[in-house]
Amino acid sequence: MFNKNKISATLSAAERDEIIAKIAEIKTKLPFLLNLTTAERSQFRKMGNKGLAYVADCLRAGKAFPSIIPPSIDIVELEKDLTLHNYLSEIAVNIKSLAEGIEDTMTAAGSDAMSNSDDIYAYLKRSAGSDDNIKAQLSQISAHFKKTRKKTEE
């Protein structure tokens, strides 16, 4: 059987642990990060490219005409929010790219592992004959293909 290997790489347990530690270190630099529920997330206004330009224009106008802006609108806080959004946006682009690479590599490695396992299973099935050890392995492996049926109420 033809087996095309999509990825061939290794990652040691020590390297994995170092990466996880660095991610934890990054999290300590961002102690203010929120974890919103779906309901909470849906309540917020979203700021896309048009919204970003809108906010930047309003910030400039607020700074240009402070005498007409009521004290309840904190221009300094608005600027902090905009700066934070922009910096996090830059970080997010890099994190998303990294996450996509990790996900894609996991997909390829999983596909390779599944394809090779399918080949092994096929060779075992062809070679089982009267070898009880191979039959025992086949029995164990074939258990992964058994479907569980849901009981229907009568």
Task: Provide the fold topology.
Layout: H1 13-29, H2 38-43, H3 49-64, H4 75-127, H5 132-142
Helix pairs in contact: 3-4, 4-5
The total of beta strands comes to: 0
Q: How would a textbook summarize the main sheet?
A: none
Please work out how many helical segments DSSP would assign. Answer: 5
Characterize the overall form. elongated
- Global mean pLDDT: 92
Q: What ranges have pLDDT less than 50 throughout 5 or more consecutive residues?
A: none
Structural class: mainly alpha
Q: Any overview of this molecule?
A:
- The chain is elongated.
- It is built from five helices and no strands.
- It has a domain of 101 residues.
- The chain is 67% helix and 0% strand.
Salient structural properties:
154 residues, 5 helices, single chain, mainly alpha
Task: Give a brief rundown of this model.
The protein has 154 residues and is an all-alpha fold.
